[in-house]
Each structure stands twice: as C-alpha cells, then as structure tokens.
Amino acid sequence: MPEISKRGIRMPESPIRKLVSFADKAKADGKKVFHLNIGQPDLPTPQVAIDAIKRIDRKILEYSPSEGIRSYREKLVSYYEKFNIKVSADDIIITTGGSEAVTYAFLACLDPGDEIIVPEPSYANYTAFAIVAGAVVKTIPSKIDEGFSLPPVEKFEKLITNRTKGILICNPNNPTGYLYTQAEMNKIRDLVKKYDLYLFSDEVYREFCYTGAPYISAFHLKGIENNVILVDSVSKRYSECGLRIGALITKNKAVRNSVIKFCQARLSPPLIGQIAAEASLDTSEEYMLETYNEYLERRKFLIDGLNRINGVYSPIPMGAFYTVARLPVDDSDKFCQWLLSDFSYQDQTIFMAPASGFYTTPGLGKNEVRIAYVLKKEDLAVSLKILEEALKIYPGRTL
Amino acid sequence: MPEISKRGIRMPESPIRKLVSFADKAKADGKKVFHLNIGQPDLPTPQVAIDAIKRIDRKILEYSPSEGIRSYREKLVSYYEKFNIKVSADDIIITTGGSEAVTYAFLACLDPGDEIIVPEPSYANYTAFAIVAGAVVKTIPSKIDEGFSLPPVEKFEKLITNRTKGILICNPNNPTGYLYTQAEMNKIRDLVKKYDLYLFSDEVYREFCYTGAPYISAFHLKGIENNVILVDSVSKRYSECGLRIGALITKNKAVRNSVIKFCQARLSPPLIGQIAAEASLDTSEEYMLETYNEYLERRKFLIDGLNRINGVYSPIPMGAFYTVARLPVDDSDKFCQWLLSDFSYQDQTIFMAPASGFYTTPGLGKNEVRIAYVLKKEDLAVSLKILEEALKIYPGRTL
What we know:
The structure is a homodimer.
Chain A: H1 6-10, H2 15-28, E1 32-35, H3 47-54, H4 70-81, E2 92-95, H5 97-109, E3 115-120, H6 125-133, E4 136-141, H7 153-159, E5 164-170, H8 182-195, E6 198-202, E7 228-233, E8 246-249, H9 253-265, H10 271-280, H11 285-308, E9 322-326, H12 332-341, E10 348-351, E11 353-354, E12 368-372, H13 377-393
Parallel strand pairs in A: 1-10, 3-4, 3-5, 5-6, 6-7
Antiparallel strand pairs in A: 2-8, 7-8, 9-12, 11-12
C-alpha cells in the first residue's frame, strides 16, 4: 500500500473535532448538549436569500464564470462602499467560501518555505491552508490579560526573516472577538510597508462590532493598497455557512491574475450560492439590526455571566460572536472532554472549544476555551449554569 | 510590492482561456459563435433536482458535514452498485466538484517532488492541481492513429522512478472519448500492483459509453482495492456543472483519514448542491436514456461529418462527449484563433479547443483540436459547414 503524503500527516486535527465523537456519545446517552463550540449562527438566513433559491428559473445549472457572476461582483461594490471600502468589481474574485479565498491567497503569494506571521490565538484552519501551500505560520501570542490586543511591533520584527512574505490578521477576531484599533492598524500598516509584506486580512465579522469603536478595514490603510488581500464570506453575516460563498479582494493585479488561474483550474464557484448571496445584498436593514441586537444582548449576557462564575475570566469581546475565557482548570482539552463524557447537570451538558487548537505555541491556551454565542439567551443561561456546576466538581480544578 | 509565488507563475493558462477574449470580440462584432470548446452540456438538468432546490424548506442554510451529508452518501452506494462498484457510505467523501476531489487526492497522497504518470492528451487541470500539491506530472503520449488507446506498458515502466507515486487515468476519457478495454485496465492493474502505486481514476463520464464495450471501473480491478482513488462528479451526468458537487471514493482508510482533514479545514461542501445531487439520484430512466441517445446521435453525426471533410480525421470516440480530431493546419492554436478573429461564414464561426492544451510534451497536438458535442444536431451541422469552409481558405492549411 503506497504511503500517504507527509503533508497529510502534518495536517492538524482540531481539538474540537476530536471531541465530536464524545458529543455524539453524550447525545446517544440521552444528554442534551449545548453547542458553544462552533461558529454556526442559529439565526435565520434572510428570507430574500431563501426566496431567490426557491424562485430559481433555470433549465440548466451551468458553470458560472471562474471569477464569479459579474452582477454579483458589481453589487458587492456598493456593499463595501458602505464600509468606506472602495473597490471595483474587477478587484473582487468570488470564491468557494472564505476558506478557498485564504487557500488561493496563500497559493498565489507564498512558495514552500515562505513565512507569514499571525497573532495567536487564531483561527486554526489558517495553519491547515498554509500547510496546503507549504508555507510556514509563525505566531505571536496575544494575552488574555491585555484583552488580546495586538502584540508589540518588536515581536513582529523579531520574527521577520528573508522568507517572511506576509502578516495575517482576522478583524474582528475569531476566536477572541478583539477589534483592532486605528493605532494598532497603523502599526500593522507601517510593518507591511517597511518590510514590503502582504497583509492578509480576514474581515468576515465586520457586521458585528459592538462597542462603538470603528471597524478599520485593511483597505482603509493608506499607502499599502497593493499589499492588501482581503478575505470575505457571506457565511456569518447572513447565516449562510452552507452556501460556500466567499471572496478574495485585492487591488494587486499580479496577485489577482495568479489567483484567477487557480480559480480557472477549479472552473467555477457554486452557482446557487452566488444567486442567494447576490439576493442577500437586499437583506433589510431591519434583519441586519435585529441580528446585530441579538448578538449584542447575548454578548453582554454571556460575558457578565462568565465573569460572575468563581475563577472564570473573560475579557469583553468587541466584535464577532466569540470570546476566549480563562477557566480555573488544569487542561481545557481534558475539561471539555470531561464535560461531554463524565458530567451532566439535569441531563444536560455543554460543548466548548478548547483554546489549545487556536495556539501553535505549545502550552498556551491550556486553561482557556472559546465560547461562541450562537445560542439564544435562555440556552446561554442554562449553559452558564452547567459550566458553574461543572467547575464545582471537576477533579482538575486549579483555583 | 511583494512578489507573487513561483507556483502562481507556473500555473498554466489554458489555450482555451487565451481564446475567450477573441470569442468575446467576435460576438461583439456581431458574429454568432458556436461553442464546441467547453464541456458544459446544453441538455436540461433533471427536473427532480430543480424541484428539490425550489422546495428547500430550511430556515438556516448551515454547514453540512465536512465529508458530506450522510443520506446522500448512503444513496450513492446504490447508484454505484448499478455499475458493479461495491463501496460503502464510509468510503465516499463528498467534495466541491470533481476538481476538489482531484486536488485533495493529490494533497493527501503526494508530497512535493512526487511524480504521477498520465497518458496524454489529458484534462489540462490535472497539471494545475498537481502544481498545487507540488507534484510532477509525467505524460506518455497516446496516438490519434491508434485511436488514443493505452500506450505500451514499457513506456510507463520507463518513466517510473523512486518518486513515482501513482498513475492517473480518465475513463471514459476527456479529451479523446477513449474507453479503456478490459485488457488495458488489466495492464494498468498489474503496473499499479507491481510498483505499489496509487491509481487515480476519474470516471465522471461513465454514463456515456456508446459502443457496447463495457465500462471498466478502477474498482472492478481485483487486488488493488487499497490503491484506487476514484474521482466523480454530478456535473456531466446530470448537467449540473454549477452545483459543484463531486466525490472522492477510496477503500484506503489512511488516505480517507488524510483527505478528511483537508475537508475539515474547508468546513463543508455546498449544502444546496448536495440536496440537488441527492434528489438527482431519483432521475428517471427516461431522462438518462434520452440524454444518452441524444449524445449517441450527435456523436455519429459529428464524427461522420468530420471525416467527410477533406483532410480532417477523427477516431470514433467510445465515450464521454468529446473527440480529438486532426486538421490539415499548421498550428491549431493559430487556426482556432483565426476562426474567431478573421473568419466568418454567413456571420457565424466556431470556437474549438486547440489540443496543445491537453499535451505537456512540447509540439504534440499542433494539428489537433478537441470538439465537444454539447450542441444540438442542427448547430453541429452548421459548425461542420463552417469548419469545412474555413479550411478552404485558411492560409496555414497544410494538405
């Protein structure tokens, strides 16, 4: 039997995935499991999107253009304009989810051995996509006691080698919910300029900024227009994770021409998804506001609740719908598994994501978890109660 | 401005793509262009698939499982059973088109520098996906005068090195329409066994075999069950290219476990596409037969017509909906471009794919084109007339 690739062996298996079988077992045993572990919004997809799918009036479900349907790309221009992001339809390439946008950005910009710098904790799959491209992710820890703000510039500069090709940020951040300030974004801009790096900026959570602090897009930064590669997706903002529609946006023509060759090889992004995503741009202000207010309330409820539990600490996330909280436990991988396999409170338990999967520096995140507030308040209330009760009796409690 | 990757530079631009702007120009100039260049079926998508999309009854369009929806995978088992392909739902991983299946097969099985052997002419994007994986495609020419049958085993053996990890075939073949015989498949099996190679087998055209000769799947070959990775797609058989639903099927558990990690990183294949693809398995026998008969007739009509034109030769393709024909021209890249930019017959012209894009051996395919019979007979009739008239006055005519 021929061997599988070393790359395949290097591909990480996320700690969340490892727990899925425990969650399945818990359910099979009759426990109710509250899913705080995944960024799958529970809010409804906008009706305009569902209607567009129902109204589909085509005889042949054919390939769409490799770079995406023109009318959709043109309509996106006005969407971005609302955020003061000035791009043309030609700058926008439609991808199969934000995942493909990150993958093609790496493939087009990075060669095997090239390095990118990413503040951690960070979305675990960036590492997976880097492995696909043969690129190396170097991480700089941000700290829970500093609210996961941007690490000092000197830490970035220390990591820069002649193989460093880019910096990657996620803003607002998954998993921390942190929103970079103008001052921080200026520091990133200066680094990008000084070392002539790519700035890969994943901004899929831009609709969800809660504190009144401004959302600073990488495209707002002057003087690095040709360095910026923006990653976007309709998954989170319209609760359309299943459509698999994202976008890669850049003013750098050489990058675009390269990305388009990868797009042409896979022929076409999903047709029906694009039709629904285009219709979603007509989503009512009311829907967007209701969704926003719902997350806003949940966030306050969750964070207040977490910080009321003895020994638990969560910074106040400014955006997205996650928080990384510190728990008084020996090992959050073990604790999260124990919650599923050994614990129940009134036949219920919770599934959280151990933070270790969001760090590459060994040992970090050991006493942290990521919690997604994609459940309604009543369920968050029960979840908080479960967490509180669990911590009372967890054998590995540390405080 | 940072440099794009060398890999991006190496990504091929297909000769078809290069001609698209000429086709657009021709249309802008008022010429009617018959598209014989692309494998986009013109036949309707089955109504059951469209209906399934219209009947979508979900509030949230959420992620589907990374390996695909279980009920769809289970239903596929009976579909394959009809072709005497015996697989379980666990052997099947749903992918975003056949493209993703090939890409993940390469990523999971091949490391940078590893080699695969492919008979040419072959589907151009295999090379693109190999570049993504850093793998090397070595080709063995098959010959139009031998009907594009399998090249001799010795030619394969000559190419085998300690980096050779697999053989890739497409059966029935794109671009040639060739269908491998039992004897040829046995030779492939013996090679795979002798050198312990992967056999990547793209069988997306299995529904379209016209001569009564049997379709031999790689899964029919005894003794290499753990070496076979089958690539499939609903695009061609149901005219559903836009859904982007394919599959990677293997009994090799190590490969599957590796592929699934790549699938998990990109989270989910398209949800709506899977719903439509699952419904498509209930497509009536009548639809399948009508589609089959339509291609069967077109094939006869096209091949007869081609071989009646002075200096033109096409073997009789046994499957798929393409043929590679030899033309009396100096350079089919030039000829295909000239047809779009310089020629018209009654304000009409044709767009064919120069065969050079399907060969990697320099110089091969210079006087060949790929013609897809995805147009109705009346349009094929006009297309043949256009080709005949064009060859009468093309300045680079050779015979």
